[in-house]
């Protein structure tokens, strides 16, 4: 383990929040597509953001063919199915932006060179859920 908490063997999954990894397949050196068992062959770290996948304890990543798209990962991301699952700061940010566009909807037609601008501090609402590293 490195001082920054990485091992060098991680596959980072962008677009947080990770809900589930459903498939990891790869093309082996013979050109045959192999599927890994997500529950036994992988360690899925959904606590970290961005989430990451590592080989299970005592195993290593299989050797893949050197070609484009040799590894395919399918996963589900998002905050959940219910609106209450979305963090309050993200809901507030959406309401502020939608409200501004609604209030200035006619100004957009009249203006020829101007743009509608939301106050810059509104974007700071997203800071608690911002992912810094991929």
Strand content: 15-25%
Describe the global form.
elongated
Please give the domain count.
2
What gyration radius follows from the Cα positions, in whole Å?
Answer: 21 Å
Number of helices: 3
> How many beta-strand runs?
6
Order of helices and strands: EEEHEEEHH
Report the span from N to C terminus: 18 Å
Q: Please outline the major beta sheet.
A: 3 strands, antiparallel
Would you identify the regions where 5 or more consecutive residues have pLDDT less than 50?
none
Class of secondary structure makeup = alpha+beta
Please state how the strands of the largest beta sheet are arranged side by side: 1-5-4
**Mean pLDDT reading:** 85
Helix proportion of residues, in percent?
10-25%
Salient structural properties:
19% helix; elongated; three-stranded antiparallel β-sheet; 134 residues; alpha+beta
Describe this structure in words.
By secondary structure, the chain is α+β, with helices and mostly antiparallel strands. The protein folds into two domains: 11-77, no CATH class; 83-126, no CATH class. The chain is 19% helix and 25% strand. The chain contains three helices and six strands; from the N terminus they run E-E-E-H-E-E-E-H-H. A hairpin with a 5-residue loop joins strand 4 (42-45) and strand 5 (51-55). The longest helix has 16 residues, at 88-103. The two termini are 18 Å apart. The model has no long low-confidence stretch (mean pLDDT 85).
Outline:
The protein has 134 residues and is of the alpha+beta class. It contains three helices and six strands, in the order βββαβββαα.
């Amino acid at each position: 383990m490195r001082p920054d908490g990485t091992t060098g063997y991680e596959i980072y999954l962008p677009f947080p929040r990770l809900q589930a990894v459903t498939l990891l397949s790869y093309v082996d050196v013979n050109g045959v597509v192999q599927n890994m068992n997500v529950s036994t062959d992988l360690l899925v770290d959904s606590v970290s953001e961005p989430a990451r996948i590592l080989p299970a304890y005592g195993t290593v990543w299989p050797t893949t063919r050197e070609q484009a798209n040799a590894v395919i990962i399918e996963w589900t991301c998002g905050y959940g199915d219910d609106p209450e699952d979305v963090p309050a700061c993200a809901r507030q940010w959406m309401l502020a932006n939608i409200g501004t566009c609604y209030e200035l909807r006619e100004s957009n037609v009249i203006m020829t060179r101007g743009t509608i601008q939301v106050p810059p501090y509104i974007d700071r609402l997203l800071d608690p859920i911002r992912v810094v590293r991929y």
